[in-house]
Amino acid sequence: MKSEIKITPKLIKDHNLSDDEYQMILDILQRTPTITELGIFSAMWSEHCSYKSTKKHLKTMHTQAPWVICGPGENAGVIDIGDNQAVVFKMESHNHPSFIEPYQGAATGVGGILRDVFTMGARPIANLNALRFGEIDHPKTKQLVNGVVSGISGYGNCVGVPTVAGETTFHKSYNGNIIVNAMTVGLTTHDKIFYSSASEVGASVVYVGSKTGRDGINGAVMASDEFKEGDEDKRPTVQVGDPFAEKLLLEACMELMQSDCILSIQDMGAAGLTSSSFEMSGKGGTGIELNLEKVPQRELGMTPYEIMLSESQERMLMIIKQEKEQFAKEIFDKWQLDFAVIGKVTDTGRVVVKMNGEIFANIPSAPLSEKSPEYDRPYI
């Protein structure tokens, strides 16, 4: 196991892990984690990825009905609307990134839910939003409003999906804690709904979309943090979106989805390649082996830690049939997007991260994807 950095109490604290959580990591691994493994646990156990503080309350909500095709647990919800048609929808917040960098924070929030919707096989048809800002005469409000509204509309317009509705409220309680909720609605048929469970051992793990850079590293942890004065120095953790690349990715995925190539598919959202690989492995009860030297990179000298935790936008992870690799590659080549076979599905129940033959992480999937810590915190 490769680790060139000593794990110290300060490093653990910097990754927003409590003493109890770090002890859980030691119990799971039965050894000291590598720096890459520490980063993976930190991202996957962040509030943004694990819902460890809100899971208890989310479980009390009604999620089942005769018209619900897919409830919680997938990239987006799916509702039957008759005539073999289904509506796919997702609503998500991007509060902290939008507070730090209003335009890109809001834009990438829209980009993320667009991908969640077309990952399910639906073509997005509408965007909506619900926004909460501080007092109108607060010094930061004008800048935040202009940036957020421009980011939402700009990204959607470039992809070709209109913003059809929204609501905005101003109140002093949001002076230091804005809320940016974005929503996308898509349309598909019952026989063209795609899921994210990696269940077929031996199938190819394929990376598609834009290249991986250093933007957004530790973004999931940052998005789980509390708002504080001086958060402008966290701008490097906010992702940078490219809506034109998203449009190409949308069309390439829609085209490939007309074939029988795709076994499962997952957007690389918060925590990037980490979340997509662990979630797909955990849901399928399988393992995944990754070879990071095969990941398309736009920056030199990226470490396994950086590649696994990058939140570069407009990327997907697919599980496809081995014999269909070339067919799928030709479609993504046509749309001028990266396509790389970066691993395979295994029967180990573990995600193994390699680079140039060396192992940098070897972690069971379930504790990260399905069995994260859960808390019952006080509330008012």
The CATH class of the largest domain, by name, is Alpha Beta
CATH homologous superfamily title of the largest domain:
PurM-like C-terminal domain
Question: What distance separates the N and C termini?
Answer: 45 Å
Q: How does the overall form come out from the CA principal axes?
A: globular
Uncertain segments:
none
Count of DSSP-assigned helices: 14
Radius of gyration: 20 Å
CATH topology (level 3) name of the largest domain: Phosphoribosyl-aminoimidazole Synthetase, Chain A, domain 2
How many E strands?
Answer: 13
SSE pattern: HHHHHEEEHHEHEEEHHEHEHEHEEEH
What number of domains? 2
Relative strand content: 15-25%
- Roughly what percent helix? 25-40%
Describe this structure in words.
The protein contains 14 helices and 13 strands. The protein starts with 8 loop residues before the first helix and ends in an 11-residue tail after the last helix. The mean pLDDT is 93. It is globular, with a radius of gyration of 20 Å. Strands 8-10-7-11-9-12-13 form a 7-stranded mixed sheet. It has a 6-stranded mixed sheet with strand order 1-2-3-6-4-5. The chain has 2 domains: 9-54 and 195-371, PurM-like C-terminal domain (Phosphoribosyl-aminoimidazole Synthetase, Chain A, domain 2), CATH 3.90.650.10; 75-189, 60s Ribosomal Protein L30, Chain: A. It has helices at residues 9-14, 19-29, 35-44, 47-50, 55-58, 95-100, 102-119, 141-159, 219-223, 243-256, 272-284, 304-309, 325-334, 366-369; strands spanning 68-70, 77-82, 85-93, 123-133, 163-170, 179-189, 204-209, 262-267, 287-291, 315-320, 338-346, 350-355, 358-364. Helix 7 packs parallel to helix 8, helix 7 packs parallel to helix 10 and helix 8 (141-159) packs parallel to helix 10 (243-256).
